[in-house]
Amino acid sequence: MTWIIIIGLFLLAFVPLLYAIPSPKERRQAKLRKRAMSDGIKVEVMFIPKLSADASEMVNAAGKLLEPKIECAAYQLVLSKRLDIPHLLFLKTFVENKRSLYDAFEHWGVRSETEFRYIKEYPDLINLIESSVEHLPEDALAVELAPQKISVLWRESDDSGSSYQSVLEALKMVKEHFERPENICDL
Question: What average pLDDT is seen over the chain?
């Protein structure tokens, strides 16, 4: 009986430690994020609105409204000069959320009419973003433009080097465009 109690206490003390051990997926993500940081990219966990949520995700059992969100890793490049643009969030469109977005270009849209009106005034901006997202991985869900940063938000389900490289190239392409002297005041 004493041995059973000792084994029980041992398990009680050490089983929670097993949860602290990272899974193989978490190790791959940590390696990928460390590589990104060495390339000058800031990685942050962010949430984007889940536009294709069903009713059970929008209301809890008590009837309280919820905001369904998708957790993503935001790979961000900070700009050296502040842009004179509003915060723009381009979301990938799917069949389920197509009605919730204003089409910016093929398979990508924005949520608000204000963002839509803004980007329609700058077709060069649309062309730039469209060309930068062409080679992003399938699980890239959003591209964010803010006055101080450019971000690609993705799920990191494909953590291969080629997926990371396509995210890095897209970020650098947009950053280089805005940091050229002739393009700083384009917008």
Answer: 82
